[in-house]
Every structure is written in structure tokens, then in C-alpha cells.
Amino acid sequence: MHSRPTDQDLNIDLDRGRDDHPLQGTLYVVATPIGNLGDITFRAVETLGRVSMIAAEDTRHTGKLLARYQIKKPLVSCHDHNETQRIDEFIVRLNRGEEIALVSDAGTPLVSDPGFELIRACTQAGIRVIPIPGPCAAVAGLSVSGLATDSFLFVGFLPRKAGRRRERIEALAGEGATLVFYESPRRILPLLGEMVEILGDRPGMVAREITKIHEEYLRGNLSEIMATLGSRESVRGECSLFVAGADLSHPPLMADEALDRLIVTALEDSNQRTGDLAKELAKKFKIPKKVVYERILALR
After folding, report:
1. What is the residue-wise DSSP string for 189-254?
2. Residue 50 pLDDT > 90, yes or no?
3. Same domain? 88 vs 43
4. For residue 23, is pLDDT > 90?
5. Half-sphere exposure in the Cβ direction for 196 (13 Å, CA)
6. Are residues 183 and 280 in contact, defined by beta-carbon separation less than 8 angstroms?
7. Fewer CB atoms near the end CB (10 Å): N or C, the chain?
8. What is the CATH number of the domain that holds 39?
């Protein structure tokens, strides 16, 4: 039988791995629930209750979480639009011994969330940066996707501009690892259509509203998932998309249109001989060299 950890046990765990730097503070990168507020860890609650300040992506959103656990700490915004301006203030406070927690609206900070510039500045300044692990939509969804988990590539949000988005998907066509994307409910259907067109009708899963009341996991080929979502009046809730990697033992042929775009771009940027260019593109995108060579000849 497993018993609930005591306060003494928690304090031992919390202090484990900490060394003495009396004149220097610590920045804690704290993972918070992605939906169900009960998913926060004991250590995260203790850390948020101990630090002198909490840097939050959205102070109103984080304020609700703190109220749930009766934590009263100063909240300072730290998001994409002000992160760079906040760095000097945080560095000064950390250098004089304060402890600061960084949180995002949901999940693990920096995973498609703000915080990269702050973390980089702190590490370059020699300030301790400690993770407080917890929820992450990408890992949570992957664990129940039914797709390969021994190797996966987290892509996050794709570019919004159609041309750049298609180029990014085309570049992933030969990737053997499971692909993980984040997408808004308004753009998930068009994205699925592009995936089928460029990558083929692979197995996949769309996870919607993970850990929330209306959470849903749609598994099957991408076209089947697209048909299910397309039959609804609307799609709601943030979505995570998981797509099986390419079968490298039988690499699928890239659509002619997609291959032609890659070749045209390569021809504009390179003066290589046809054979050398075909070899390079075939290796990069896992396409038979003969196919690439013939398309280059046709386009030159």
C-alpha cells in the first residue's frame, strides 16, 4: 500500500540536489496543469508558495491557479511582447538572492510558450535555472496515441503563411519519428488536409481538450480523423496532432507538385550539376535518386 508523502518527505525531495549559493537566487521553471487543476505536483505548489515573485504568461490566468491553492505571491507578466524588456529586472533580483518562478498559461514553459530569452540570459549570467517537472500536452497525448514513442519530433505550431507551412511539412516528409504538432481548432481541418496531400494518409491522432471535461482522442488515418471533425458544426478546444513517421523501409513518393517546388527552389540557389543535385535532394528528402534526377531534367 502506498501512503501519502509526509511534509518531511516532501521537504527532503525539494531540497535534494540543491547546493548553497547564499548570494544568488534561483529561477524555477514550473510546469502547471494543462486543464485539470488537480494535475499540479506537490513540489510545484511548494515552489510557487516559496518564491518571492512569479513571472506569468497571463497573470489573470495564473491568478486563478494560485487562488485554487491559496497561494498569495506577487505576479509579474512575462510574455512574447515584453519578455526581453523584463530580463534585466529579473537578473538583478536573482543576483541579489531572490527566488523567482516562471510559469506559462498551461503545461511546461518554453514548450511553444514564452521564456526562451529569459532562460538563455540567466544561464549566460551563471544563474541557477531549475525545472519543476509536470504536465506537457505533447507528452501526455503521445503516451496514448498508439503511435511509436521510441523516437518523436516535436514541431509545435507550424507557420501560419501557407507557403512556409507547406515547405515545413514537405521537409518532414522523410522523417521516421512520430511527428507532434500543436494547432488551433480553427486551423486543424485545413492542416489535416495538407498533411494528407503532402505526407500521405498516415495513421495519426488528434487530441482535443486534454485533461479537461470534454477531452477527446480521435485515432485512425488522417483522412478518417478529418472526416470526423469535418462532419461537426465546429471544432472547439486546443488541439494536438500526432502523425506517424515515414516508413523508411518503403519511402513514399512525394507528390509531384511538392517535389517540383523543392527542385525549383534548389535550382535557384545552386549551380550544381544535375547528378550532384539529384543525389543531395534524394538523400535529404528520402526520395529515390532516379525520380529526382528525371524531375530536374524536366524542369531545367
Report:
1. HHHHHHHHHHH-S-EEEEEESTTSTT-EEEEEEHHHHHHHHHTSS---S-EEEEEPPP-TTSPPPP
2. yes
3. yes
4. no
5. 15
6. no
7. N
8. 3.40.1010.10
